[in-house]
Amino acid sequence: MTAIKYELIKECSKTGARAGKIHTPHGSFDTPMFMPVGTQASVKSVSPEELKDMGAGVILSNTYHLFLRPGEDLVKEAGGLHKFMNWDQAILTDSGGFQVFSLGDLRKITEDGVTFRSHIDGSKKFLSPEVATKIQMDLGADIIMAFDECVPYPADHDYTKQSTQRTTRWAKRCKDTLTRTDQGLFGIVQGGMYKDLRTMSVNDLKEMDFPGYAIGGLSVGEPKDLMYEILEHTVCQLPKDKPRYLMGVGTPDCLVEGVQRGIDMFDCVFPTRVARNGTAMTWMGRLVIKNAEYTRDFRPIDEHCGCYACRNYSRAYIRHLVRVNEIFGLRLMTIHNLYFLLDFMRKMRESIMEDHFVEFQNKFLANYSH
Amino acid sequence: MTAIKYELIKECSKTGARAGKIHTPHGSFDTPMFMPVGTQASVKSVSPEELKDMGAGVILSNTYHLFLRPGEDLVKEAGGLHKFMNWDQAILTDSGGFQVFSLGDLRKITEDGVTFRSHIDGSKKFLSPEVATKIQMDLGADIIMAFDECVPYPADHDYTKQSTQRTTRWAKRCKDTLTRTDQGLFGIVQGGMYKDLRTMSVNDLKEMDFPGYAIGGLSVGEPKDLMYEILEHTVCQLPKDKPRYLMGVGTPDCLVEGVQRGIDMFDCVFPTRVARNGTAMTWMGRLVIKNAEYTRDFRPIDEHCGCYACRNYSRAYIRHLVRVNEIFGLRLMTIHNLYFLLDFMRKMRESIMEDHFVEFQNKFLANYSH
Predict the structure, then answer these.
(1) Residue B334 has what DSSP assignment?
(2) B108 and B257 fall within a common domain
(3) What is the spatial distance between Cα A250 and Cα A229, in angstroms, rounded to a whole number?
(4) B-chain residues near A70 (CB < 8 A)
(5) Which of residues 271-330 of B touch A (CB under 8 A)?
(6) Which end of chain A has the lower number of beta carbons within 10 A, N or C?
(7) What residues of chain B lie within 8 A of the CB of A336, using their CB?
């Protein structure tokens, strides 16, 4: 019995792209899918109902942040993350590894785990494969992640090898800790920019037979061509009957490249973060709503977009709200960007179903400016 | 022909309280009514749909702020304020007088009008009865307000008399400026804390036969008893067949006292402002959601409240969101406070309709702690 089941529905005849469905204890969602990020048990500024309206079937939340505030014990007492935040569809939690390793000088790594200081009050904390898994069991997400080290870029072959092997040992300890049968634990492939280490990581993890595999350690500062090369090398070695998740990637061009190589799931704070900075995502590229040219522009952000913001409000109005720091402006921008990205994934999926993915990709790239 | 029509439906047999309906070119709303404030063409953090769901039939927006940003010409070009902000029900705009006079040293008053410096960029601006009325014609609200001076507290009899007489002369100039027949201009009674001057102001304004009368210059720092005394003295001299609007008042105790004396309309930033500071309004008094006692309190803010926040979220969750500065927390708090106040007015109106207003008032005061 496994909590997470991947159903492969259609493969592209020309690329690695594939359409599928992931079944979880809190409903199913179509893939390829983008997962909006609700760092602190809330996708910034929007409601669960708004997320459902835009077609989000799964969201991501962060173990590191919830561990610090409000604490996983409180979330457990509330009945778990779904109930706490009023979201009855699928949730994925990361392991906290990425955030902890990002703390730099504030953390110390041993084989056992990572000691670090809270970025909020400086208090001493400890995360390990066991602790991270137990926290995620208390939170109760449908998909949980193994505790790993995201190898920084650049890193030499020696360090990357040691780190990747430790990540594999940690994955085993996570698996041994998990006792809930309604949660699926994904292994995370590391290996930096070294193909031999990526292969090693994939093979080691495959032996443990996880219900899904994530690819970590990409989009960490390396050139995009290198990222795509490592991605391609890695994905094609992963089992076909399990979901594949590319962590921390969410710009349209990277999403297309990821799907082309066979990725099913993505997450990124990009669409919600740039929304709050006044940048709208469109099929043509980015639109900076604060620019003077939109002062008296009474068209919607995107005339072909079906989101709540585009159906009801003009660029001029949203620009006004953003300029005067009205919260509703951030909300409209966030709704637009998430809707755009979810719609983008829907259309990409449709193109795979109709075996027109390459045409979709070419048309997108012809219109999109970076 | 008049744009605004007041329909008196029921009078309390023991107090001055009354239930009615105000008809505007953008629909009708029941009175007594509280008007949520959308200072910059947005009721902070909430959508028009959310406002309708909680029963708001009229909102207020501020001429001073819209004059500075985005400018009334832009709003006019957008098709007016209703269309600009996607609100198809009634809107009231103030005249900008209150904000301009609040600028203190930054403004200079003459018989002609007020020269002031923008609080945003320091640029020199001018508002007068004619300018304020023309701006409000461009904005296109259903109910617009005469340009007045809100007499500060305390002020001596001489100054108050001069200022009040000027406000009356300005009201005449506003009336002469208004050419749109789909807007109703309300006169504003001033007179400070002096009964003779309040009587003078009422009589002078009544001669001009406005479709509604506001009472300004109260709730400006004077003791509440004095406010109620002046209010009572003023309201009973106003015509029965016109709506009466008490400006800038929005705490539950003041709303009850105002309704008791015959007020039909209220506005205040209080419910939305304290919401953003983490204070919820309830029938028992204020609830400070950040307090430690709510950390593991999984009940809603108010178990008897029917608002979206109380139907779906716990005190513990909302407390978490507010503590970690999540925008959705402000949204839930704002929704709760506005719903509470609109529900409070609905129940007060029902008590008038059933001639149980005094019982409502006594029961409310017995349970409410300040």
Answers:
(1) H
(2) yes
(3) 18
(4) 295, 316, 319-320, 323
(5) 295-296, 298, 312-314, 316-317, 319-321, 323-324, 326-330
(6) N
(7) none
| Pairwise CA distance, residues A241 & A91, whole Å | 21
Name the pLDDT band for A102 (thresholds 50, 70, 90): confident
In this prediction, residues A254-270 reach a mean pLDDT of 98
**Tens digit of pLDDT for each residue in B226-277?**
999 999 999 999 999 999 999 999 999 999 999 999 999 999 999 999 999 9
User: What tokens were used for A220?
Assistant: 């960490």
Query: Is the domain of B193 the same as that of B306?
Result: no
Closest CA of chain A from B327, distance in Å: 5
Do A214 and A313 lie in one domain? The reply is: no
B158 is known as an active-site residue:
no
Residue of A nearest to B69 (CA): A320
Token pair belonging to B112:
């002609």
- Predicted ipTM of the assembly: 0.98
Per the CB < 8 A criterion, the answer to whether A255 and A349 are in contact is no
Residue B363 DSSP label: H
Residue B40 CA to its chain's centroid (Å): 15
State how far residue A214 is from chain B, nearest Cα, in angstroms: 28
Cβ–Cβ gap A316/B74 under 8 Å: yes
* Domain-located, residue B252: yes
Q: Is A47 on the interface with B (CB under 8 A)?
A: yes
- The CA-atom distances, in angstroms, between A161 and each of A158, A230, A232, B223, B332 are 5, 15, 20, 74, 48
Look at residue B341 and tell me if it is in a domain.
yes
Q: Which of B223, B246, B267 is the last residue of a domain?
A: B267
Binding-site annotation: residue ranges of A for substrate: 94-98, 148, 190, 217
The verdict on residue A367 lying in a domain is: no
Flag whether pLDDT at A1 surpasses 80: no
Q: What are the pLDDT digits (tens) for B95-130? A: 999 999 888 878 999 999 999 999 899 999 999 999
Contact (Cβ atoms closer than 8 angstroms) between residue B133 and residue B177:
yes
Q: Tokens at residue B86, please?
A: 């996607």
Amino acid at B250: G
Pairing of strands A279-282, A265-267: unpaired
Specify the 3-state DSSP secondary structure of B245.
strand
Distance separating alpha carbons of residues B179 and B79, to the nearest angstrom: 18
Tell me which amino acid residue B173 is.
R
Task: Tell me, yes or no, whether A27 and A158 share the same domain.
Answer: yes
Is residue B267 flagged as an active site residue? yes
> Could you give the percent of chain B with pLDDT greater than 90?
95
Pair (A250, A279) in one structural domain: no
What range does the domain containing A80 cover? 5-267
Whether residues A138 and A282 share a domain: the answer is: no
Pick the last residue of a domain from A267, A292, A324.
A267
Mean pLDDT, chain B, integer: 97
pLDDT at B370: 74
Tell me which residue has tokens 């400890």.
A126
Q: Which of B40, B78, B329 sits opposite A316 (nearest CB)?
A: B78
| Phi, psi dihedral angles at A110 (to 5 degrees) | -130, 175
- Pairing mode, strands B184-189 and A143-145: unpaired
Check residue B1 and give its pLDDT. Answer: 58
Structural domain count, chain B = 2
Kindly determine whether residue A78 and residue B42, on different chains, have CB atoms separated by under 8 Å: no
d(CA B82, CA A165): 62
Structure tokens at B121: 């960029």
Please state, in angstroms and rounded to a whole number, the distance separating the CA atoms of residues A133 and A177: 7
